[in-house]
Amino acid sequence: MTLQFARFIPWLPIVAAIFCALCCTKKSWRHYASWICLASVVGSFILSLMAGSIITPGKEAQTVTFFEWIHAGRFQANFHYYFDTLTIVMLYVITGIGSLVIWYAGGYMKGDRGYARFFMAVSLFIFSMTTLVMADNLLLLFLGWEGVGLCSYLLIGYYYDKPSAVAAGKKAFIVNRIGDLCFILGIFLTYREFGTIAYEPLFEALADMEHATGSVAAIPFLFMLGAFGKSAQLPLYVWLPDAMEGPTPVSALIHAATMVTAGVYLIARMMPMFVLSPYALPVVATVGGLTALFAATIALCQYDIKRIFAYSTVSQLGYMFLGLGAASSVGAVFHLFTHAFFKALLFLTAGSVMHAMAGQLDLRKMGGLRHKMPVTCWLMFAGCLALAGVPLFSGFYSKDLILGDAMAAGLNGHNPWMTVLAWMGLFTAFLTAFYTFRLWFRVFWGPDQCVMGDDHHDDGGGHHPHEPHEMPWSMNLPLVFLAVGAVIGGMVCHEWMTTMVLSSSAGEALSHGGTAHHASLFGMDVHSAVMVLSIAAALLGIALAAWFHLIRPSAADRVKQSYAGLCDLLENKYFVDELYDAVVVRPLKLIGSVCFVIDRLVIDGMVSLVGFAPRLLGLTVRPTQSGSLQGYGLSMVVGLAIMLLLVTLMWGY
Amino acid sequence: MPEIWLVVAMCAVLIAPFVKRRNVTIPTLLAVAGLLAAMLFTLLWQSSDPSAENFRTVFSNSLAIDPFSQFFKMMLFLFAMLIVVQWVLIGRSQTDALDVPDFLCLVLGATFGMSLMVSANNLLTIFIAIESASLPSFALAGFRKHQNRATEGSLKYILLGAVASSLMIYGMSLVYGSSGSLDLATIAQHASSEGISPLMGIGLLGMFAGFAFKLSAVPLHFWCPDVFEGASFEVTTFLSVASKAAAMCLLVRVLSNFAMFSAVESITGMAVGLGVLGAITATWGNLVALHQTNIKRLLAYSSISHAGYMIMGASVILLVNPTAIVSALLFYILVYMFMNLGAFTVAAVLAAQLGSEDIRDYAGLIKRSPLLSILMTLFMLSLFGMPGLGGFMGKLFLGTAMIQAGGIGALLVAILLLNTLFSLWYYLRPSYFMIFVKPNDDDAPSTPLARPSTATLALLGWCVLMLFWTGILPNSAIQTTREYAAIIVKPAVRQTLSQSTPKAEPKIDRKESH
After folding, report:
1. What ipTM goes with this model?
2. pLDDT (tens digit per residue) in A397-408
């Protein structure tokens, strides 16, 4: 069986997007949109599974031709799809998680004015994201990359009558411009250096290279900046927390599970290029490790549920980059996979809480919800355990793999900085467990307390609007699937993921000596030692959270009072937004004003001149058209006489 | 010979009133039938696919029947048919029923002459063809005989035309005298073997002056605005496209012969001269157009500048492989035909409803007739060369073909671009008045204009469609023109090869023909 059918994976959703757009036109058609979208994405998922049955570990990567896109001179970029095991893994995540989230969103968005618009954008997103991972060249990848950026913008600003949502959409879009500019510069440079931007010839050319020299060495750094923008890493992470203005399913699908991992995918895909440069991967690891710690500390003191998860996402993405930087692409992609499950689950359960509380997201205004929403409570518990890295839950396996590989890389390579990063990762694991359970305890345990939000949705359920309520099973069932994935995904998929990733371009480039661990930590094998440490960190974090937020809430207040300055700093996210505003935004606005004045005076003046000068010239020649026949005849003859003169002059007479 | 059908139709149209007096439908149908038959015949006569073997000549090598002329004739007959349609839709009601057959006969006659122009392969047929295209045109220009401007324009046209014709025939006689032949290929061979003597140079200049008159190239352009202003819209449209395009094709044939047979050195001067002529024409036309307020005069100067662009393109034929440039020119003519037809039709509809051809009277039209305003803007943008519309692609192909000629070509392209920039000013002026200028509140009625008839809208819609098609997906059109353009060159190469054996007499193809 050939892979020809696989070309429909992106095209089913885009057809669905067209139909959803049609559904926008008529109110009575609106509710079909979710079904159209869901059907197309499930269809894509089935096709992905079929493709996965063909592309198994150890098989050659395949290219599915679709059509020739751009041909200009030697430059060539085709709409062809590249399939290797990494593509398959990404497709499973996108279409699988995507189906579940869309299923959930069908209930969540009910009664909203823009119901069909929402699903149109989501379908378009699935198209872009699948194109991104299936692209066989960098330009097509960039097409998908920009496509997901656009959908993200559309969906963050989905509530376009809310100024904060509009601002958040703009922020996400503009911050991503910086990364995308670097990314496309990297593509240009790749073309200039290698003469091609298609993966296969590119990988062949890279395989022949020993070291990156000259501008080849710069390419990974440009790609890296693109990835940092899209995946919300330092210093470009600021857009992701604000992106939570979008509807919660969007936060789950785009801003936790799929789009933000595009940067991880990009670096994993381009691993053959990154390993050539001696500095590229350490920089990735450093940024990843610092981001993980930085975001986790901010998450400690936030009160908005979705923002906590947003910072948590930034932090977990930091882990993935740490993994990539430590040459553990298996760990990174594995964490991407498990994170997609548990973070989508966490966001959706947070969405359920928000839904039930009429838009209320403030931790301080809720408590004891486990009586009202038992199913949601335990679903979120499963997600929290996975995020905290409790043994046997999925997050544990992947995070542990990353930390173990990082520690091993540090100790084996006698690279103290990598060791420090690994220790930082362990500390972050402790913080993660703490803020995760702080949230869970405060929402579902403690004294009953609920201050409803003012977001009165009307889903026709007939429930009392001032009472939190459990979600219907049509919305909880997809969460159950996600929870199952979050719980057992790590255990079940560990081996499979290792073989999958190692047989892709991400794995082949790395001569990862998994067996050659000589170093030891505390007299144990590095991996075992890190495992013990991370279990300890997770349990310690949970215990501390239970102490502060369940058993002795007064202790938490006291700690908060004694470290008021620190808490203030964390609550205000280190004042990074304010810093950016002062350093970047204001100067740019000033430059903009100056440019505006120049445009008005100089450019407009020049344009007017361009219009004015010919008219003046026209005035001078116009009198020849006097209307008198004699004048015409004379002019004709004189003109010809001049030409005659010129002709004769040409012969030298 | 598809032209025979035009002659038959002319006779039939003239006889029709004797059968049924004052009937306007029958002659119209007859004329359309004649044009259709001619089209069909053009298509069938050379039904096999265009290839080098398809070049043949009739009447002692005096008329060439090749795919190049075939392609142009198809366009010409189609265009003449569209003109008849345009006239039926807009102008026929203003024509006296008794004059209808005369009008149609003149249109057919002019089409006949233009059709011969593109086939003409020796000096004599060139002269006959030009004259038989010109004489009906003179009459058409003055067809609205009760209008002073029409008679004035027509008289100017005739007198200036006579000057140009006499120059041309005098030049031809000099060319014949110096080369000893009427046949274009032989003249070109002579020019290459003996060099271009001063006498021949002057003769060629006179000859080109005749062509330039038809093309309305500076300084022989004076007739153009006055005639266009006086004539009815159909005639203006017809003259602005068909007559110029036919002259263009004639020029292309003459130049291709020189390009094939002559050494490059001897004709570079000719190329430069033509290029300069084209550049002056384009610039002059644009500069004067900037101050026009009458839509017909504006479009007249616009047509002068477009002729200038095409002459600039044609001059390069002498320097590089002509296929690219000839195909670009054919494409340009195709696009130009539709955009001019569209612009003039909208102007005609507006003139009929507003009673004015002054663009200042278009003020506030966007409110009164948004459709017509948008259509006018589209056609004007295409004439300017807005990407996405056919006019842009025409200029693009012309420019890319020109630039192959090296320094001269690059200079010509620069002039083309500069002119395009200037032309934006006047092409957008009607739209400026339509959209941004408020009408003087007291004297201008603000009632919506009557909706144009469905047939008119269909005609306009087709023009728009063609412009978008050629502007967005030009590949199939340019491929076709390339196939047809290749022919004008290949047989000439063949003849050059056979010419290596000393054989002064031109090869005469005595194939039997109709």
Report:
1. 0.77
2. 999 999 988 888
